[in-house]
Amino acid sequence: MPATARVERPSLVARVLLGIGAVGVVAGLLGTVVGLGFLTSLDRALQDSLGVTTDAVDALGGSVEVAGDTLAILERTLSTTAATTRDLGVGLRDAEAVLTATAELSEQDLAGSLEAVQGSLPALIQVASVIDTTLGALSAIPFGPDYDPTQPFDDSLRAVQVELDGVPDSLREQAGLIREGATSLGAVREGTGDIADDLEELQTTLASASGLVGSYAATAAEARAVVTDNQAALERQLAWARVLVVVLGLSFVAGQLVPLGLGWLLLRPARLERLLHGTGPEWSGSGK
Q1: DSSP code at position 105
Q2: Is the overall model pTM greater than 0.85, yes or no?
Q3: Are 71 and 217 in contact, with CB atoms under 8 Å apart?
Q4: C-alpha span between 254 and 202 (Å, rounded)
């Protein structure tokens, strides 16, 4: 083989190897930069998405907390209202009993007693007339009692008789009105009992809803914790990914040292000869 061909062939191979090594170094550096840029963009996008998710979860948790507080207030209010309504029903029951007893007292005891008095007044008036006449006659005697009343005794009893006339019937009529009032109070009492039952049922429903809202609040808190944990995990993974990209890029660049070194040595055959055999150059005039 001619000496010129022997020299040009390793020179061509050396340039090819140097070109491959240079391209590899540039590609490795560009790949590392592009990879880091991609990971940075991915990190920013994920952080934005997780930030929006965190805000949504926080807003949901705040809404659930407000709903839970509102339900708790309503539950306590309904409990107090139901208890007050029960107490009102007890008071109405007592008032109903008092009115019923008053009606019976007016209709039976008072009216009956006044009728008995009215029945005995005629006889009392006759007796009073006799007493009044007798005392008047005795007052005419020099040593008799001084009897000169402003109104005779029998006239006083007649006035009482006139005043009592119709009172028993009026008492019976009033007793009927009082009994109607007691009946109305009984109806109101039953209504308050129904209202108290409805309030207690509503309180039970609100208690169930409050428990459900509490579970929602716990779920929102768990979701917030999961988002936070995932955010931290993604940050760690992206950090390791950056390290991996840098390591791979540097490894790829370091791998180009082989073709670069071979190309450099092929352009300097004297040094290659010395490295391989410790002798002079195999191709004359190709290197120093």
Answers
A1: I
A2: no
A3: no
A4: 76
8 Å CB contact between 6 and 283 = yes
Identity of residue 266: L
Model pLDDT for residues 26-48, shown as the tens digit of each residue: 888 888 888 888 888 888 887 78
Question: d(Cα 189, Cα 182) in Å, to the nearest integer?
Answer: 10
Rounded to the nearest angstrom, the gap between the alpha carbon of residue 171 and the centroid of all alpha carbons in its chain is: 59
Tell me the two tokens of residue 228: 């936070």
Those residues with Cβ within 8 angstroms of residue 224's Cβ, 6 or more apart along the chain or in another chain:
54, 57, 58, 61
Report the C-alpha gap between 224 and 218 in whole angstroms: 10
- Percent helix, strand, coil in the chain (nearest 5)? 90, 0, 10
CB contact at 8 A, 241 and 41: no
| Residue of 13, 1, 6, 18 lying closest to 285 (CA atoms) | 6
CB atoms within 10 A of CB 204: 12
Q: Distance of alpha carbon 224 from its chain centroid, rounded?
A: 18
CATH 1.10.10 fits 3-276, yes or no: no
Can you say whether the dihedral through the CA atoms of 165, 171, 172, 174 is positive or negative? positive
Q: Using the structure block, give the residue that is written with the tokens 């929602």.
A: 216
Instruction: For residue 231, give the nearest of 62, 48, 61, 60 by alpha carbon.
Output: 48
Name the token pair of 282.
């195999």
Is a pLDDT exceeding 70 seen at residue 180? Answer: yes
Helices (H), 140-166: 153-164
Per-residue pLDDT of 219-232, as tens digits, reads 878 877 887 888 78
Q: Would the CA dihedral through 146, 149, 155, 160 be positive or negative?
A: negative
Task: Determine the Cα–Cα distance for residues 195 and 189; give it in Å rounded to an integer.
Answer: 10
